[in-house]
Amino acid sequence: MIKETTVRPLSAYIMLVVCLFILAFAILIPAFSLLGSKGLSVIGGLVVGFIFLFTCAGFFIINPNESKVLILFGEYKGTVKDYGFFWANPFMVKKNVSLRARNLNGSTLKVNDKLGNPIEIAAVIVWQVRDTAKAILEVDDYQQFVVIQSEAAVRHLANTFPYDTFDDDHEPGLTLRAGAEKVNELLELELNERLARAGIFVLEARISHLAYASEIAGAMLQRQQAIAVVAARRQIVEGAVGMVEMALDRLSEKQIVNLDEERKAAMVSNLLVVLCGEKAVHPILNAGTLHH
C-alpha cells in the first residue's frame, strides 16, 4: 500500500531567473546570424525557445490548505504540502488535492431498522484528506468514495439498532432515537474504518434526519400516543390508590365515622371514580341519615 511522502521542490524564483536567461539567449541568437549561417541561427532559436517553454511548464502554485501529488511516468514521487511558488520536472503530473475540511450532507435513505420497521435516516459528515497518496492512488475517485461509503455506513448503523423501544418491562437498550450521542460516535468510528483506505479522516458525523417511513408513521404515532396514555393513566391510578388509602387511614385515626366493609368498598369506589375520571363529576348530596 502506498504511503504519503512529503517533498519540497525547487523554489520557482530560482528557476524564473534561469528562464529569463534562456529567453534572453533565444532573443540574441538571431543577432548571431550576421556572423554565421542564418539557417543554423533559426534552428538554434527554435531549440532554445522550446527549452524555454518546456522549462516554464514546470512552474506551479500551491495555496494554503492545498497540496500537489507528484507522479513521474506512473511512479509516485511525493506530495508537496507547503504553500507557495515552486518548480518541478515538467514531465511530472501534478494532481491537486485540497486539505480543507469538507461537509457531506447525505441524502435521506429509506432502510429497515433492527426490528424491521422502515425508517428514513440521513447524516451530515465533516471530513478531510489526511493521506494524499492514498486519496489519489488507492481509489478511483476519493470524493465519490466518501459518498458511497457514507451511505453504506448509515445503512449498516440503521440495521444494527431499533428506531425506538416499546418494552416497558425491561431496561431499554441503545436506540437510534434515544441514544443519539452514542450512535453518532459509532457512526464516526465506522466511517473512519471504511475511509482509511482512501486516506480520509472523519472529523465529525451526526444523524441529521431520523423518522419513520411515511407508510407506518401514522401507526407508530398512534402507538406512541397509546403508550403515553397508558403511562399517564397508570400514574393517575397509583396516585388515586394512595389518596384513598390515606383517606381511610385518617378517618379511622380520627374516628370521625365508623365504616363497615360494605361502606368502605362503596367509598373506595366513589373516590376512585372521582380521582381517576377524565371528566368532572357531579356529586349527589345525601340529606338523610348515614344509612339512607
UniProtKB/TrEMBL annotation:
Location within or outside the cell: Membrane
Key words of the record: Membrane, Transmembrane, Transmembrane helix
Domain Band residue range list: 57-224
Topology of this chain in the membrane: Single-pass membrane protein
Location, primary (coarse class): membrane
Xref: InterPro entries: Band_7, Band_7/SPFH_dom_sf
Pfam families: Band_7 (PF01145)
Membrane-traversing stretches: 12-34, 40-62
Superkingdom per UniProt: Bacteria
Protein known as: SPFH domain-containing protein
Organism whose genome encodes this protein: Rhodocytophaga aerolata
